[in-house]
User: Fold this.
Amino acid sequence: MTARSMRSLQASKPLWHKLQHNFAMIQLKSPADIEAMREAGRVSAKALRKTGELVRPGISTAELDRFAENLIRMEGGIPAFLGYNGFAGSICSSINDQIVHGIPSPAVILREGDIISIDTGAIVGGWVGDNAATFAVGEIAPSTRRLLEVTEACMWAGLDAARPGKRLGDIGHAIQSIAEAAGFGVVREYVGHGIGRQMHEDPNVPNFGDKGKGLRLKPGMVLAIEPMINLGTEKTAGPFQDGWAVYTADGAPSAHFEKTVAITKDGPLILTAE
Ligand code: MG
Assistant:
């Protein structure tokens, strides 16, 4: 366990996705480690895809959560989020202006025109996989559709920059430039992260940055790259009463796409893949 994750367990409020400046404890993975992480990634990816297929008007986020938990366990995994710093779900289900960390609830029923960001993580053999995507509930506004498309494109650009010799700032820069060219806000306060035996390891992986700046990327680093992009302001609000869900400050929609990627000498290897 890293010093950072011990601190996060000690903290009463989660450091989950919260931007920290600490590159001190990066755990490089061997090729065998990376191979083992593919199974956690596969289960995480299957849970995300299959849960996403259930998204429709009238379903509750608690039903999505139950489905995802069952699937992860059937596949031999443990839901990585359940009980993490006290989180009450196996998925994060963040609706519309919720950016991340929405708690599944039987009281949250999806409606036509909503968007829902689903984040799923699984632990298999002690390794963690983590991925997310934002889904449309029926027909959505064209501006929101564009937000989803651009945020997914941001994620792919970030993944493509995850190569030896590049720097952390290259990942952030790739994401930020696409989002801002589209006129969208890049969330600053919540960021991606290293991942391995812990869900959140060093380094932090901001979705903004300067080309050629920051930590040099090396084979064996495994990162969760996860742009959180807002239709309006980049500013966030909350968490409020439930202690978890983070909102856009202006109430405009937010999208979130994430994959776990290993940096290898041959380039990015996406681990959350079936
Ligand atoms: Mg993550």
